[in-house]
């Protein structure tokens, strides 16, 4: 039996006495520059991927939309990714919508801004990484409040 190896094409063929050499399918690496072990990352869908031409590393900023109140019910405080956010609120009837952040003492919620009328364009606010925020609703009905991160 003799074994032939063609390094360029990475093909392998085996021969034995009385049997003709048969070609096996070519084994083609994904690229000349991608090592056998690559960089892995978590995609937007939560699955793991190996960086390759078909699945490149993500380069856009993290997208994030956080609901702070829904149907006039405020949700518990949430930690943000950080960056510039747009505050949008829509209420059936307005009292006050207060956007609050957690102070350095770790327990006190401090009011950053209040809204008592609709804000069609939204309000831009900046937060540091990991900042904890919530809203306090007073005298409102049918209120929905969201923070949307700008990439």
Q: What number of domains?
A: 2
Number of helices: 0
Instruction: Please estimate the helix content.
Output: under 10%
Quickly give the CATH architecture of the largest domain.
Sandwich
In spatial order, strands of the major sheet run: 7-6-14-9-12
CATH topology of the largest domain, what is it called?
Jelly Rolls
The mean pLDDT is 78
H/E series: EEEEEEEEEEEEEE
Q: State the total count of DSSP E strands.
A: 14
- Backbone structural class: mainly beta
What about the largest sheet?
5 strands, antiparallel
Name the beta content range: over 45%
CATH class of the largest domain: Mainly Beta
Distance between the termini: 62 Å
Low-confidence stretches: 1-21
Which overall shape is indicated by the principal axes computed on the Cα atoms?
A: elongated
Q: Please state the CA-atom Rg, rounded to the nearest Å.
A: 29 Å
Describe the secondary structure blueprint for this structure.
Blueprint: E1 2-6, E2 11-16, E3 19-23, E4 40-42, E5 48-50, E6 65-70, E7 73-74, E8 78-79, E9 83-90, E10 96-102, E11 109-115, E12 123-127, E13 132-138, E14 144-149
Antiparallel strand pairs: 1-2, 2-3, 4-5, 6-7, 6-14, 8-13, 9-12, 9-14, 10-11, 10-13
Could you please describe the fold and organization of this structure?
By secondary structure, the protein is an all-beta fold. The protein has 2 domains: 49 residues, no CATH class; 85 residues, Jelly Rolls (Sandwich), CATH 2.60.120. Helices cover 0% and strands 48% of the residues. It is elongated, with a radius of gyration of 29 Å.
